[in-house]
Write a structure and sequence with these properties.
- With 906 residues, this protein is α/β, with parallel strands linked by helices.
- It has four domains: 13-247, Dna Ligase, domain 1 (2-Layer Sandwich); 258-347, D-amino Acid Aminotransferase, Chain A, domain 1 (2-Layer Sandwich); 386-518, Glucose Oxidase, domain 1 (3-Layer(bba) Sandwich); 555-589 and 610-644 and 694-898, Alpha-Beta Barrel (TIM Barrel).
- Helices cover 45% and strands 17% of the residues.
- Strand 21 and strand 22 (494-496) form a beta hairpin.
- The longest helix has 25 residues, at 606-630.
- The two termini are 36 Å apart.
- It catalyses: pyruvate + phosphate + ATP = phosphoenolpyruvate + AMP + diphosphate + H(+).
- Its EC number is 2.7.9.1.
- Pfam families: PEP-utilizers, PEP-utilizers_C, PPDK_N.
- Its cofactor is Mg(2+).
Length: 906
Amino acid sequence: MSENKEPHVAKFVYDFTEGNKDLKDLLGGKGANLAEMTNLGLPVPPGFTITTEACKVYLESGEEPAALRDEVSAHLDALERNMGKKLGQPDNPLLVSVRSGAKFSMPGMMDTVLNIGLSDKSVQGLAKQAGDDRFAWDSYRRLIQMFGKTVLGVDGELFEEALEAAKEAKKVTVDTDLEAADLKKLVTTFKKIVKKEAGRDFPQDPREQMDLAIEAVFNSWNTDRAKLYRRQERIPGDLGTAVNVCSMVFGNLGPDSGTGVAFTRDPASGHQGVYGDYLQNAQGEDVVAGIRNTVALAELESIDKKSYDQLMQIMETLENHYKDLCDIEFTIERGQLWMLQTRVGKRTAGAAFRIATQLVDQGLIDETEALQRVTGAQLAQLMFPRFDEHAKVAQVARGIAASPGAAVGKAVFDSYTAVKWSRSGEKVILVRRETNPDDLDGMIAAEGILTSRGGKTSHAAVVARGMGKTCVCGAEELEVDTKRRRMTVPGGQVVEEGDVISIDGSSGKVYLGEVPVVPSPVVEYFEGRMHAGAHDADELVEAVHRIMAFADRKRRLRVRANADNAEDALRARRFGAQGIGLCRTEHMFLGDRRELVERLILADTEAEREESLKALLPLQKQDFVELFSAMDGLPVTVRLLDPPLHEFLPDITELSVRVALAESRQEPHENELRLLQAVHRLHEQNPMLGLRGVRLGLVIPGLFTMQVRAIAEAAAERKSAKGDPRAEIMIPLVGTVQELEIVREEADQVIAEVEAATGTELKLAIGTMIELPRAALTAGQIAEAAEFFSFGTNDLTQTVWGFSRDDVEASFFTAYLEKGIFGVSPFETIDKDGVGSLVKLAAEAGRRTRPDLKLGVCGEHGGDPESVHFFHEVGLDYVSCSPFRIPVARLEAGRAATQSAGSDHR
């Protein structure tokens, strides 16, 4: 291995006593927080962390850093001296776990191996040490099972089937009822499976076990499921994972032992209290895997009062220290409490808003930090509809409300089917006994997840909450048969694959059939139909109200709406819009006005064209009167006609059929024939790059001047009615300043005529859309004739990338996302390097020419959370988006203004 592959770091291994919570880049989240808890004096089993830098070297070169083995040996020697045991020695063995731990939490996506150090010899020593044969053989079978699947690539189902067979032979239903002799036989069976499937014996050398496990954890960074999860959560792929080697503590030593997961607050609701799961006589993976149903954490008080009280004290310490909801893994070994992990916990959208305001009230964080604890994506989730509680639909079961939302879909029983059906346009609910990391792609594809096992800390629950996906776990009344693709509900009714079910992640209820939905209370709040503080309108609405108030006070970016009529404008205003950033006038030319537009297109003489324009003028004027009235006192940017004219004519195939039928029947068809000739005349190979936008205004005399006159007359009428119209006229698809100058000269003349005729002074700003690369590159020139720029990022993305959006999204975008060429579609989040560079360049050039140039964006990116931050950074004045995305944009604009370096709450 070449030396330049290794980074210049002092070392690759850190003892838990050496790190702290701020070293997540180097030690990963798990290692950094184990070190932090050690520093706090909490009971953490001794251990050490192999850094993410070591992982990066391994992934780049295929070899571990040359210094790593010696460093691991030195730390292992120190650990053995500390514990008074040696790894895997026959009489008094030290056992360790090898666990992954990236900077950002990726629950279940990477590998873990417990009980490393057990062998045919040391299992005897462990039995003697613990005074419990059953425990020792149970730990050994777990090691072979985890090691076989994780390190040697053996199909995990083979071990599960052997375990089920052992239980059936013993006529028991849970693994804890298997005795030492049964587990000893199972170990022999497991070793045979490894030999057959992996082509080698299970390794008996404990150091070989540990080294292979470390390598497997490094490799698990690039498994398909880990890469899929990173794409879903937008986690960079070059971070690597740390590896934590920790001395084992055992929760499977009998009824005075156990393992659990605890939250300092409810991750589903945000309420304070005792939340979590506990499982007696078990190891940690049993809780997360959901293979046995747990008891509520509160029951630990009656099982082990001393450990419970100590845990409650530690939870309070950790929450006050991290100033946030903490997710904790712990083990009790014969009455001794050990802390195995803590992290800032994933939470539902509702919990995020409640917790942020609670922590402000407790004085733990300020308003600025509260804004960083929530996201626009979470707010969008809260605006989804919910089930109608009064609907008469059969409830068949109730599980644990793991992740809120109202999900309806066809039941499917494996991940492959979920993905396949979803790609065919079907909405599906993934139904499993319990999920595991291999189910991730199905969980992403599904509307919601339903499991019959597991609790709020199971894999399904944790991953669903992180994705904002509806989830109901632990619905024990359901008998899920994945092999026969069906489930049986209480009373014996069978739900087959393809039957529609509904799940409520807020209540845990499961229904047969489709439950109707009603608006979210958060939407009702934004609509003005629910006021913060009214009934217990819920603390959620109150929390959203407060966070939005924080955001509005902090943000610099203004937020406008894309709206084309008075109804949308009024709704946008209720949602907090500060004007209209894009009124698409083409939408006003459809419906019962289509015939007038057809007459305009078919006009053969100037008189016919003027007659059509004259008929359209009063209708256009009334559109603008209504719009200016709805947005009185706020700016309204009106885009002149943009799309190709053929969009206003009938479909060419449909029209050809009509003409052919009329001719065959010898019926009059002169108008249809003229229309067909016009459609053929206007046909373009690439209409989005053809006769549209400003080109229409230059080629069709009177079209733009009619629209400008309608805007000016409407503004004058509103002024005479004591209104305050603030109209702005936007010229689309400008590529050169000369186009804008010609249209502007005509517009200025029309506005002057209206001012003279009405005796009203009109201050109508005239600007343009920047949606072509040439416009961005010559923005300094264009600004000489424009009072504002609005970036049309939809078209700009198409023209920069050379994409036809309607074609490429359906044809190859899925492949590009899967191959990692895109982290996210450039139509969803702005491409900062390409399209974003042009936006930045144009903004700077435009303001050099005209310092008071107003800058906005009106493409769909205006409502995308990540894009809003970019627009804030490059100095735009406003973003414009659809009415329902306005609250999201307001929130993200506030977050962008208060974004602090290094703050990241995923």
